[in-house]
Design brief:
It is a single chain. By secondary structure, the chain is of the alpha/beta class. The protein folds into 2 domains: 1-39 and 114-194 and 290-352, FAD/NAD(P)-binding domain; 42-113 and 196-287, Polyamine Oxidase, Chain A, domain 2. The chain has helices spanning 12-23, 63-71, 115-122, 166-172, 181-187, 208-211, 254-269, 271-274, 333-351, and strands at residues 4-8, 27-31, 43-46, 49-52, 76-78, 84-88, 96-98, 108-110, 130-131, 136-141, 146-150, 154-157, 159-162, 174-175, 198-204, 214-220, 225-230, 239-245, 278-283, 312-313, 318-320. The strands form 5 sheets. A 7-stranded mixed sheet has the order 7-6-16-17-18-15-19. A 6-stranded mixed sheet has the order 9-2-1-13-21-20, covered by helices on one side. Strands 12-11-10-14 form a 4-stranded mixed sheet, covered by helices on one side. Helix 1 packs parallel to helix 3 (115-122), helix 1 runs parallel beside helix 9 and helix 2 packs across helix 9. The radius of gyration is 21 Å and the shape is elongated. The N and C termini lie close together (7 Å). Residues 88-341 form the Amine oxidase domain.
Length: 352
């Protein structure tokens, strides 16, 4: 049972898989290229307020993720939608107030921030089971094992699970033995969740929008932000707005984006909108650990959960996992959990 399993990637997929496999008695090590875990979960503390610049919401139709939250004693709360929303149809007209229909599917957030899931899972690891700043650059097939080489170290494992986006894997890691050409073709045409997103957050001293009878929800056809939501915490002691910027702004400077957001905030809320304590943003297509940059457009979620990801590679010693490979809810947190459970059963059948 002391099969050594190395997991590439310390996002939700990798951390959850490590947690599952360790509980089953496998010897695990997770190597993460970044100086933080979380991947596309990115809860940033700004002015003592946690803001989500990555994955944020879950829903009642996410049963596997809800089970994990329950088992870890993680509490959820409803996304605040109380009050009027604002919609900006044209640059030449003021945003219009409207009521969001009451029959909308409820979105939930995690008390303490989405990162709380990772904190609870990570608490089960020893110091040598999770290593940061270990970017994998090569995998060598050694007949009965695999040698994984990073920029600073190398590891020998009986089995390797990659949880990084498939397109990033095939374009950033060199394999001494050729990978299946069909797999590489599909991986290069698999959409990577979040890579097209530009998220922003604004921290405020008070929730001034509530005093105006507004929910903090805003939509715009003309940008720079396309949608925005109340992002205050569960205790209602820290206040923020969070949303998405038009992806066309990714190539502009941070200063330019903030200036344009400032102008739009004034249009939506008057002077109160401009009185934020901090502005945060995350341009996900600039993150080399998430996005392999090329000129090819891939439709969102295209090839997520493709049948080829259910296969094993390198003579049965490599599995490609991660949210994009999940046959259900591919490209979401729910997909990461579903795929993790699937890989656990696969390895139990293989080694137990």
């Amino acid at each position: 049972m002391k099969k050594k399993i190395l997991i590439i990637g310390g996002g939700l997929s990798g951390i959850y898989l490590g947690y599952l496999l360790k509980k089953e008695g496998f010897s695990i090590k997770i190597v993460e290229a970044n100086d933080r875990i979380g991947g596309r979960i990115y809860t940033k503390n700004s002015h003592t307020t946690n803001v989500e610049l990555g994955a944020t919401w879950l829903w009642r139709y996410n049963p596997e993720l809800l089970k994990v939250c329950s088992s870890l004693d993680i509490s959820l709360f409803e996304q605040n939608m109380n009050g009027d929303a604002l919609f900006e149809a044209m640059r030449t007209s003021a945003p219009q107030r409207f009521q969001v229909p009451k029959n909308q599917e409820i979105s939930y957030r995690i008390v303490g921030g989405t990162f709380e899931i990772l904190n609870k899972l990570k608490a089960t690891f020893t110091e040598d089971e999770l290593e940061l700043n270990q970017k994998v650059i090569q995998i060598d097939d050694k007949e009965t094992s695999l040698k994984v080489t990073t920029e600073t170290s190398s590891f020998i494992a009986d089995f390797v699970i990659s949880t990084i986006p498939p397109q990033v894997l095939v374009n950033s890691v060199h394999f001494s033995s050729d990978l299946d050409s069909g797999f590489k073709q599909i991986a290069n045409n698999t959409h990577t969740w979040m890579k097209d997103s530009v998220k922003f957050a604004l921290v405020y001293k008070t929730p001034f929008w509530k005093e105006k009878g507004l929910s903090g929800v805003g939509f715009s056809n003309v940008g720079p932000f396309t949608e925005m939501y109340d992002h205050s915490d569960f205790e209602n002691t820290h206040f923020a707005l969070m949303g998405f910027l038009n992806s066309s702004l990714a190539n502009e400077t941070r200063e330019y984006r903030e200036e344009k957001v400032n102008e739009q905030l004034f249009k939506f809320f008057g002077e109160d909108g401009k009185k934020y304590l901090s502005y945060e943003e995350k341009i996900w297509n600039e993150d080399r650990l998430v996005n392999y940059k090329n000129d090819r457009f891939i439709t969102p979620h295209f090839n997520n959960g493709h049948a080829i990801y259910q296969q094993e590679f390198l003579n049965g010693k490599l599995i490609v996992a991660g949210s994009e490979t999940s046959p259900k809810y591919g490209g979401y947190m729910e997909g990461a959990i579903y795929r993790g459970n699937q890989v656990l059963e696969q390895l139990k059948n293989k080694f137990l």
